[in-house]
Amino acid sequence: MKRVLLFTCALLFCGTVLSQMKREQFESRKLNATRELKIQLPDNYDPESDLKHPVIIVFDGEYLFEPVSGQVSFQTHFDEMPESIIVGIIQGKERFYDSYFDEVTGLPIESGKRFYDFVAEELIPYLDAKYNTSKFKVAVGHNLMGNFINAFLFSKEPVFDSYINLSPDFKGSMGVNVAKRLAFLDNEIFYYLATSDGDISHINASIHETNTAIKAVDNKALTYYFDELKGDSHYTLVTGALSKAMDKIFELYKPLDDKEIEEKIMPYEGTLDDYITDRYNRIDDLFGIFKPISEEEFEKLIEIANRREDLESVYKIGKLANAQNPNSAFGTYYMAQYAEKNGKTKKAVKLYESALVLEDMSHIDKEFIMTHIEGLKVVEDDTEIDEEDGEE
């Protein structure tokens, strides 16, 4: 019964993915031919919106597009990565010519160079002009096309920001040259390399050699990940490696987790509004997209500030939340808490009363805020009586 349910869910999920995919015919001057593209736009894609989306270019799109689009759909559903535009290039019988390489360098030549120019000079500019794309571009390649995508690193400005190499069949000195190139890049680059213990032996060996060379690279602009999957073949490693690659490349985009809280936020020197602002500015700078801070993350920061006994952060997080969403009671409520805990009773009451006319938070309603106000007014009255007694 469980297998039937899982199979049914898988069919429904695949059906959803396929229903969002469209095909386009692209007439290329560089190739002097028409190429078919598979394109998947985000579920709620709006061409009139200012929202931008990273672009994932999938080589060998006839078999690799669906695993990529399925993984992206899964991770965006749980807000683990930004909604992205996925473009699969159908290569089929042209694959051999598209990947044609120099046997010494491993770099594309002749028909391979024409295919390279098609991607860099025609396809990507076309996508940027037609769709709401961000500056963040990802290349996904397997086997021969895994070797090919590395060529985009060698342009003056790398064409892609992230490279997902799924069991690449490195040709010539490509592996060595990649390590050398990564050592001197100024642009921030994400580089993911995967093999498996069941991979084709010569491919596995060259990948390990390349991994050793890249691990020795000392370049702050490089974020490098390597995986050797267990029990997978040259082909079955694709799905597991894609999951790990997306998870690691878009790690910064994810909501705050326990690891980041304990390792980075708890020991952070400074107020937590600075930490979260810097984090989200980096998301904007890196992925070229604006992501608002969620109320859940603001609430986590408040909890951390309380654990740190950091009242200043409570106030500044409230102020930041107010600036982002002045219609929500969240920011005003925590600014009131700051005033209350600092003994500024009149200011706290005033702020709590201001929160009453704003939108409720998910976990705190107007009735709860009123209990604060009533409690503070009792304290204020008691203080006034004590002061009168003192005067007598």
From TrEMBL:
Gene3D superfamilies: alpha/beta hydrolase, Tetratricopeptide repeat domain. Residues 1-19 form the signal peptide. It holds the Pfam family Esterase. Keywords: Signal. SUPFAM superfamilies: alpha/beta-Hydrolases (SSF53474). This is Esterase. It comes from Subsaximicrobium wynnwilliamsii.
